[in-house]
Design brief:
By secondary structure, the chain is an alpha/beta fold. It has 10 helices and 15 strands. Helix 4 runs parallel beside helix 5 and helix 7 crosses helix 10. Bound molecules: (2R,3S,4s,5R,6S)-2,3,4,5,6-pentahydroxycyclohexanone (ISE).
Length: 347
């Protein structure tokens, strides 16, 4: 890939995620600009294009990818569109930052891995933004420094205030828990090899059969243990955290920095209500680093192998939810292209 000095970015999907990425490129980065946006919703994309310096507007995402003026692509359209759009970017050898999940299943993600191996270079970064979140990075660094000794247990919690009702129990795993699966691999530096998942329906408005609270127990290849709680409708706010229990102590993500107000016999602290606010800083850092890495020649953050590896575990979680029994996770060996992938700290 040639070095890109001032990158012309095309953003596919102009909803909450795509809009936020476009605005970050436009207002926070000196070495990139929004060259084009694409979305079937013309009014929404025209509004965004105007905010971002009159970018070209496409109704069809593939036209944006084919546009010679677009040097790198951000995919923030609905989950089922990720696979064909990433493959199209690879066809045109354009670097791409794709929101999670990389595809709908591990089998589909493997098609992306194979296409990159065929090209002989990594062009894809996956939007696992927690790897750039200062609170998560601080935990990763504490573990790496030996502060709590060898980690033996990773406990994650992921609570949404509310969720788009167009979701089923499998979607809870691929759309929401997928972040926690990536985090667990990243924090422990090991692969998950067995999962056991149970769920409960607490919010009939999502559908009577949607298991909107799910609890995962897992074991890694090196015998480390973990739990992940995903809750789609917490009723109180958006909260994500992780605690690593080591042989010498524990390390946990710091609580939000909002002021504590004491009044009327109660102490309270405002919470964020969604991930765009909670992870605002992480998204800016993610975009800045992606653009910098492209300027240096190639993307450096979580790659398609990470996207594939998280989906292999997600598929096993879905199988466990359906069968009610533990499931082994079977993953291929990483091709040489991804040899150093997985556990590095990405700031
Ligand atoms: C959403 O798509 C995200 O990526 C958020 O980080 C996650 O917390 C939420 O559950 C997903 O729906």
């Amino acid at each position: 890939m040639r070095n890109l000095a001032h990158i012309a970015v095309g953003v596919i999907g102009t909803g909450g995620m795509g809009g936020m990425h476009a605005e970050n490129v436009h207002s926070m980065l000196a070495d990139a600009r929004v060259a084009a946006v694409a979305d079937p919703d013309a009014a929404r994309s025209e509004r965004l294009a105007e905010t971002c310096g009159n970018a070209t507007v496409y109704g069809d995402a593939e036209e944006l990818i084919r546009d010679d003026a677009v040097e790198a692509v951000v995919i923030a359209s609905p989950d089922p569109t990720h696979l064909p759009l990433v493959l199209e970017c690879l066809e045109y050898e354009k670097p791409v930052l794709c929101e999670k999940p990389l595809a709908g299943s591990a089998g589909d993600a493997l098609k992306i891995v194979e296409a990159e191996v065929e090209l002989g270079k990594k062009l894809v970064q996956v939007g696992f933004m927690r790897r750039h979140d200062p609170q998560h990075v601080a935990v990763k660094e504490a573990v790496a420094s030996g502060a709590v000794g060898t980690p033996v247990l990773c406990k994650g919690w992921h609570r949404n205030l509310d969720h788009d009702p167009r979701i089923d129990s499998a979607g809870v795993v691929t759309n929401s828990t997928i972040h926690d699966l990536d985090s667990a691999r990243w924090f422990l530096g090991q692969e998950i090899e067995e999962v056991y998942v149970r769920g409960a329906n607490t919010s009939p408005k999502l559908g009577e059969d949607v298991l909107d609270v799910q609890l995962i127990q897992f074991v890694t290849t090196g015998g480390r243990l973990g739990t992940i709680e995903t809750n789609l409708v917490s009723g109180y706010g958006y909260e994500v955290g992780v605690e690593l229990v080591g042989e010498l102590g524990t390390v946990q993500t710091a609580p939000p920095s909002a002021a504590v107000v004491r009044r009327d016999g109660a102490a309270s602290q405002r919470m964020e209500d969604d991930w765009l606010k909670r992870f605002h800083e992480a998204y800016v850092i993610e975009m800045r680093r992606w653009v910098q890495a492209l300027g240096d020649g190639a993307p450096a953050g979580p790659n398609s192998w990470d996207g594939y590896a998280s989906l292999v575990v997600a598929d096993a979680c879905i199988a466990s939810l359906r069968s009610g029994s533990p499931q082994k996770v079977t993953k291929l060996e990483a091709p040489a292209l991804y040899a150093s992938e997985g556990s590095e700290v990405v700031r």
